[in-house]
Amino acid sequence: MANTVRPASLFHPTIWDDDTFTSLLTLDCEVEEKYAKEIETLKEEVRRMLFMAPQGSKATDNIVLIDTLERLGLAYHFVHEIEKQMEHIFESFLNVEDEGYDLFSTSLMFRLLRQHGYNISCCIFDKFKNKENKFIETIADDVDGLLSLFEAACMRCSEEVILEDAMDFTTRCLKSLIPQLESPLREKAVRAIEQYSLHRGVPIVEARLYISIYEKEDHANMLLLSLAKLDFSLLQNAYRNELRDLLGWWRNLDTRSKLPYIRDRIVECYFWAVALHFEPRYAFARNAVTKALAVIAMINDTYDSYATLEEIEIFTKIVQRYAATVICVHLYILVILIEHVELSSFTTRVYVVASCFIDRWNINDINQLPDYMKVVYRVTLSVYEEYEHAVSKQGRSYAVSYAIEAMKQLTMAYHTEAKWFTRRNLPSFDEYVSNGVKSSSYYVVLSASLLGIESATEEAFKWLMSDPQIGMATNIMGRLMNDLASYARESRGGQVPTPVECYMNQYGTSREKSRLKLHAMCEDGWKDVNKEWVHRTSIIPQTIVERVLNLARITDLTYKNEVDGFTSPEIALKPYIFDLFFDTITM
Description:
Shape: globular
CATH topology of the largest domain: Farnesyl Diphosphate Synthase
Helix content: 55-70%
Structural class: mainly alpha
Order of helices and strands: HHHHHHHHHHHHHHHHHHHHHHHHHHH
């Protein structure tokens, strides 16, 4: 291995200067306390607004209030109050055809009901079609109505033809109207048509953008605007402190000198973690996901771009044994808790076996690795030991075994890809997707997320690992969007077989048709996500399922339009990261 030719750094260095983050100002304790008190006062006012909202069958004002709270990132403060209102709205909305709701109101209620898990039928839009089954032309210049219908159509599931028609109709009409629109309506239309729908947008990113748009609106509620600004300021303050700590952790690992070939993207990893759970109570979840993503990138770059196949095989075997080791330790702890008093002979035997296994792994296995891989291994081990320590305090030690199983599957999938490349094998597209489901890192990221959610029971981990439809759809979308975004780089470098090549090989289609088919598969994936979100029958709480939805959202944001925003954040992610962590909002 001494003569192995290693590539120099393959990726651009981080675009973020460490000194920029260390110099970021945070709120002093007095200001933070002042903001917190003002927020509590304003929240009581909002609760009164929700309570006093119209209770009749026509609740347009009420639904607009709820939509505004959600778009400003404030809904998490009023979960109980909003759910009660949505229950009432669903009950009264079943006869919406007879209530005279216009396009804007009908579309808004439809979208919000589906976003809250109510299976409202898309047939309510039939009244906006003519005898030729086309949308009536009188709504073609109703910009607010068209925007609302566009957003509703983004909640479509498979075979909902009227919503497919609505998407085509609104896109065509809005594109023709945009040149005539003034701010802030123009910004809303451009954002929807050219970038992101509300449903697919990352909630905290959308909230920050909407605050800037909302304050320009003539009908803006100053109470809601003030609350949104204060709340975002406190969130941003927390993010800055957390990010500063994570940057310190990353610097202490000294990966820039020890592993110069990997992507240095700790800021982007944290951005993803915030996208999955922006609310204040999820600080540990953000920490856990950030470190999981850093480890994923470290191992991915090692397998894809630096290690030999022999080294990869050794590392992969160690990860498999690592999983068994932790399970043995858990068995020993469980026996101790049950025995309480003296160790029985059975307990002693378990202890001896576990100790020997750990020693052999720590000393002998790691010494089989080259020095650079020892760094990767130690970082991985330290992160999962940190997880173990944290969840053990919560009485959830079982959770780490699921996180380790996810890492085990990931390295095996990476190993398969490395064999394909080294041996110049081009798998079928079906084989590629089957392995890609495991190499997408979905399991590793979301198992780390659940570690940070104390309400996540063992049932939640079992559900996650059972490949629910929303998970599989997110998984496949993530793999395909990631690979489409990195297709040009990887096909030029010959690093790994690309999905486009695999599809062309299996189906005999052209390169362009293959690309279009993969994009269509991603679009179908969103329909599957919507279907389970609306129709879900699982007992798993919405707070858990929402992490999967948020992972689909941040994946879409990062890899949209075939841009690899993680590898090259200056292209896609930098403006959003700047808004969340750098740009102090004007009060």
